[in-house]
TrEMBL record:
Family annotation (InterPro entries): RNA_pol_sigma-70-like, RNA_pol_sigma-70_dom, RNA_pol_sigma70_r2, RNA_pol_sigma70_r4_t2, RNA_pol_sigma_r2, RNA_pol_sigma_r3/r4-like, WH-like_DNA-bd_sf
UniProt keyword Transcription present: yes
UniProt similarity note: Belongs to the sigma-70 factor family. ECF subfamily.
Name by which UniProt lists this protein: RNA polymerase sigma factor
Domain spans labelled RNA polymerase sigma factor 70 region 4 type: 112-162
Record keyword Iron present: no
Pfam families: Sigma70_r2 (PF04542), Sigma70_r4_2 (PF08281)
Species the sequence originates in: Anaerovorax odorimutans
Keywords assigned by UniProt, alphabetized: DNA-binding, Sigma factor, Transcription, Transcription regulation
Domain (RNA polymerase sigma-70 region) ranges: 22-88
SUPFAM superfamilies: Sigma2 domain of RNA polymerase sigma factors, Sigma3 and sigma4 domains of RNA polymerase sigma factors
Organism superkingdom: Bacteria
Length: 176
């Protein structure tokens, strides 16, 4: 039995102390995912916290019993969409969190985001899950609810578009 399965079993038996351990296990990945989908660190923290609040609130109805990671990413995606919809009219400041971790890393992440944001939305999500979050293709399929072959095809297409964009000197909005 995996560590995750053990934690879930103990939580189901009513020992909520293991809930903290489960959250601590996934929080860094979910926070980083939310950071990709939001404009600043504070919004990403809010989104990650809301993700885990929803996870706890609906734990007893959890559809992904053996796929907690995929379930958390699905919740996080929905939370980020909800937050984006609510804040669409607000003007957000430039991503300040990128400057906190070091200039080179921030520059790399900004380049990655710039390239990804020029892709169609359905490809953006897959590229962020696969390369931003280091999920396997199978996990990407679970999170998005797409067949594995569709995930592979869309990722291949997205990577070809990024490659063409890089060859042309990274022109912005090439695909919009």
């Amino acid at each position: 039995m995996t560590r995750e399965a053990n934690l879930l079993k103990k939580i189901e038996q009513g020992d909520l102390t293991y809930l903290d351990e489960l959250i601590a296990c996934y929080y860094p990945d979910i926070f980083r995912y939310c950071l990709w989908h939001t404009e600043n660190r504070q919004t990403a923290e809010d989104a990650a916290q809301e993700t885990f609040l929803r996870f706890v609130r609906y734990f007893d109805r959890m559809a992904y019993r053996n796929k907690v990671k995929a379930y958390l990413y699905k919740i996080a995606a929905n939370v980020c969409i909800d937050m984006r919809t609510k804040r669409r009219s607000e003007e957000l400041p430039e991503n300040l969190s990128m400057r906190e971790r070091g200039y080179e890393e921030a520059e790399d992440e900004a380049d990655f985001l710039r390239l990804v944001r020029n892709l169609p939305q359905h490809q953006q999500e897959l590229v962020i899950l696969r390369f931003g979050q280091d999920l396997t293709l199978r996990e990407c399929a679970q999170v998005t609810g797409l067949p594995l072959r569709t995930v592979q095809s869309r990722l291949r297409s997205a990577l070809k578009k990024i490659e063409r964009q890089l060859r042309k000197g990274g022109k912005e909005n090439e695909y919009e």
